[in-house]
Amino acid sequence: MQILTSRVDTFLNSIGRNSKNSQKAYSTSLIHLAEFLKSINKNQTPDSIIPLLTKGKINIYELLDQFVSYLTKHSITIPTLRLYVAAVRSYLEYNDIDISNSKFKRRVKMPRFHPDPEEPLSIQDIRELINQCRNERLACYLLLLISTGMRAIEAAALRIKDIDFTVSPTRITVIRDYSKTKRSRIIYCSDEAIKQIRILIEQQERNNHRPKQPEDFLFTIKSDTKYPKSIYQRLLEQFERLQEKVHLDQRKENSRRHKITLHSFRRTAYSIINEQTNTDFANWYLGHNHSVYWTHTEKERREIYSKRCMSSLTVLDYTLLDTQQKNIQAELQVKDKQIEDLRKADSQKEEQIQNMMHKQEQFEQMIQSLIDSGQLKPLNTHY
User: Which of the four pLDDT bands, split at 50, 70 and 90, describes residue 326?
Assistant: First the structure.
């Protein structure tokens, strides 16, 4: 049941100007607040509580502490509970209710949160997932996630016109509408993933009996043509079935969340890019905050991805992997030869030193023999 009043509407409208998702989360928080207030006094609402707090008839810290206890009893997870409390604090402060951070920390006891470490997702795990996948659209989607590090919804919202096939590696524009930061950015895609994207586009054109249009979403099907969130939801359901098939569907302790999710592909991509380049490039590439002093041209960034990242983000292109392995073996052979040459040079130097020492010994013996026979007088070293 949704309970919204004039103060709440005004507050939520201000939140919604920057983010509809935040507006939705804050709305849910205030609904919980309304239910909590109703459990105390059926006449109290998020709107009517403001004058009572302003006049000091209700202690704000006692109220918030009771609200935390209320949420805890309803088995709400700690991260969600913290979100709800933060949203309620924002609503109260929006309505000129002063809340001291120091007093809040002393008087409102928030439950501690000890997050479990994230389950790593290796390239081998991804290879196993894709090898067992019989859905070409899902396989293409997963290859795109690992090669670009895109968020799941960003990839689901990818349009044909956002893919620039004219450059190598292929350039992709992440549109601001479905970006978490509400900023568009340029990223790149591996040749392996682009090959599968081309195959997917050709398949869709045959099935639909028409060419793909620039505004068409890449992963669309007829039932979810205009809704990226629906595309994402469908892909998520298919991915979870695939997880069960390959036995990678374990869940976190005391949670409904899987240990491995679609977001795990983004974490793996970040780890690989960071190892192959540096933190600044990895943060820039994934759309995180990065140093303002780190600046490169688009051509330079594309070259960094091509030469230092793409091969490590390749999952199934065994030809490329074999070439990479042969190159490594060739480099090792060159280094082995260099080491052997150094060893030979050292051996030759050692042999020369031994010869010189032997000749010196022979010369000293000859001098001593001449002295013993009286043919040579010894040097007088005393003055």
Answer: low
